[in-house]
Amino acid sequence: MARAKSDPAGGVQLADIQEARRRIAGVARRTPVLSSPSLDAALGCTVLLKAENLQRTGSFKVRGAVNKIACLLAKERRRGVVAASAGNHAQGVALAAQAAGCRAVIVMPRHASLAKVTATRGYGAEVLLHGESFDEAQARALELSQAEGLIFIPAFDDAAIVAGQGTIGLEIMEDVPQADAVLVPAGGGGLIAGVAVALKESGCRAEVIGVQAAAAPALSQSLAAGRLKPVKAHSTVADGIAVGHPGQLPFQLVRRHVDRILTVDDEVITQAMVLLLERAKLLVEGAGAVGIAALLGGLREYRGRRVVAVLSGGNIDSNLIARVLEHGLAHAGRYLVLRVVVQDQPGRLARLLEGIAQADVNVLEVAHRRAATHLPIGVVEVEVVVETRDAAHGEEVCAHLERQGYSQGAPGPGPFGVPVRYFTSKEAEWRQQLTAPAPAP
Fold first, then answer.
1. pTM of the prediction?
2. How many other CB atoms are there within 10 angstroms of residue 118's CB atom?
3. Helix (H, G, I), strand (E, B), or coil: what is residue 274?
4. What is the fold, at CATH topology level, of the domain defined by 61-152?
5. CATH class, range 14-22+30-58+163-329
6. Neighbours of 112 (CB within 10 A)
């Protein structure tokens, strides 16, 4: 089968992407574009979700992997392929190789999640755990390529990979021809580059916007510098796009076809993940939620307009889901932490909880602290974590406690960066004043 063609500048053309669509048919799915009226209401625009989280292997990566392997010569496929990945690329290459009937060796860092290792093996790949980082895993994959003659399958810096990912853009163009903007996750650049080529060369008038995690802004900084500029990628919930060095080919295509790159921080990303789960009933990984995060975090010019957000994947570890939900809910003002000092007498705790219940909140946790060095004898501190509808409801709860006779103090730092609200009952306040040391003469 013929290899993917490139334009004279070394990039990828619309024709390459159209050929890629023919190659990947039957292996990669055409994913749906979904809508959610409640999500529209929350974001103030018509949001259409390109649901690559529903793709085979749970990610768009299978598109590029299938196209790359299909472009290999028959003798190359007989030699087998090798790749390095901690997650989505691993599963995409494994499935693509299985479909092509060739051997696949995937090198994953030793800390890769058991679920992703198991899924990759489930697609028939040989998994080798090596190194503490992706860079170490990739170095080992390149060694195996040289030693065993395996064909190395890059994650993003390759014309066939970019063309395969670009098939998403063709589908968006056909399904949402009147889009005003298309928001695409951006890490190494393969996805955003392919989608941008497909859209712009098809005559789409939509603004193509890449979205990166603020903890790994390599692509946006490279564009600002006018050259590839590696950065240290810090830990982020959007680990799928935590890339410190974008690809050379994607970078050139992004410079030519992408209108701008935005960055979003983890707090907004987790809120977006919660919003997608609640409003659209879609489980989306951090990297896949950054487009929605951009709309949440200040992209206001598209109010009332039509926006497509590419949900690039849905592979999130089950043990991380609860923590992400808590983090997102907290920053959305859905959790409220109250610390209330009351007299240490029977019935005081019950009275406090009854008063809180009257504010129509759900109590999640209650901690009763008597042995604390900052408390005088005769009083206790009660910490209550409640779930509210939103930040405004939280303020209503605090106002309700004040009306019941509790004095509010200055907020302090709490879990996930959410302030703790401090209150003291009138009786406890009197006792604290009574036991306070006399002022110096």
1. 0.80
2. 10
3. helix
4. Rossmann fold (3.40.50)
5. alpha beta
6. 20
CATH dotted code for 333-434 = 3.30.70.260
Domain ranges of the chain: 14-22+30-58+163-329, 61-152, 333-434
**Are the CB atoms for 394 and 311 separated by under 8 Å?**
no
Query: What is the C-alpha to C-alpha distance for residues 191 and 167, in angstroms, rounded to an integer?
Result: 10
Residue 245 main-chain phi, psi, to 5 deg: -140, 105
Token pair, residue 72, equals: 């290999």
CA-CA distances (angstroms) from residue 87 to 112, 212, 357, 440?
7, 18, 44, 64
- Residue 37 amino acid letter: P
Write out pLDDT tens, residues 246-276: 999 999 999 999 999 999 999 899 989 999 9
Q: d(Cα 376, Cα 172) in Å, to the nearest integer?
A: 65
- Distance between CA atoms of residues 182 and 366, nearest Å: 45
- Minimum mean pLDDT range among 5-19, 168-182, 206-220, 299-313: 5-19
**Confidence band of 169 (pLDDT split at 50, 70, 90):** very high
**Topology agreement, domain 14-22+30-58+163-329 and domain 333-434:** no
Length of the chain: 441
Q: Is the CB of residue 215 less than 8 Å from the CB of residue 234? A: yes
Write the burial class of residue 18 (CB in 10 Å: 0-12 exposed, 13-18 middle, 19+ buried): middle
Q: Which residues are catalytic?
A: 61, 312
The four Cα atoms 180, 284, 27, 165 give a dihedral, to 10 degrees, of 40
Q: Is 66 exposed, middle or buried (0-12, 13-18, 19+ CB in 10 A)?
A: buried
Structure tokens at 252: 């050139």
Q: How far apart are the C-alpha atoms of 423 and 401, rounded to whole Å?
A: 8
- Per residue in 352-402, pLDDT (tens digit) is 988 888 888 888 889 888 766 567 778 889 999 888 888 888 889 999 999
Q: Which pair of structure tokens corresponds to residue 293?
A: 């995060």
Residue that the structure tokens 């004095």 belong to? 407
Beta bridge partners of 336: 386
Residue 285 near residue 54, CB atoms below 8 Å: no
